[in-house]
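FORM 12-B: Structure-to-Sequence Request
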């Protein structure tokens, strides 16, 4: 089973609000950029990547958590980040029952994460050429 099929299976198994929320998050992430790749890591977590990891999604008992691996470096004008604010790299969005996904803001955040990943790759390439 490929990663996308595993994510489909995970969402189908979440028969309450968490499945709908995770499906909405996934749809927005995939719509943000055609080159986003879905992965399945850490024994059961959907991960979305483009030139590096963008975010990982997890369904918990009382929330759906979307953690951006370089969230601390991303602009968040819509104030989506509401969890993991104490870390040096990661930032997360906790979606609780009844929360609506802000489609435009989430897509903008995903695009910013892709831009960040691509900038990091360029810096690494320049650095490796210099050595």
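FORM 12-B RESPONSE
SEQUENCE OUT:
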């Amino acid at each position: 089973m490929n990663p996308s099929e595993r994510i489909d299976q995970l969402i189908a198994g979440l028969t309450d609000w968490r499945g709908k929320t995770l499906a909405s998050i996934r749809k927005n992430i995939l719509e943000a950029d055609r080159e986003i790749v879905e992965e399945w890591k850490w024994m059961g977590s959907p991960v979305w990547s483009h030139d590096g990891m963008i975010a990982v999604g997890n369904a918990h008992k009382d929330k759906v958590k979307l953690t951006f691996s370089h969230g601390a470096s991303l602009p968040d004008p819509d104030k989506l980040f509401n969890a993991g604010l104490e870390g040096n790299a990661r930032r997360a969005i906790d979606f609780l029952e009844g929360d609506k996904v802000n489609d435009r803001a989430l897509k903008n955040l995903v695009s910013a994460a892709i831009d960040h990943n691509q900038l990091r790759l360029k810096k690494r390439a320049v650095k490796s050429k210099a050595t």
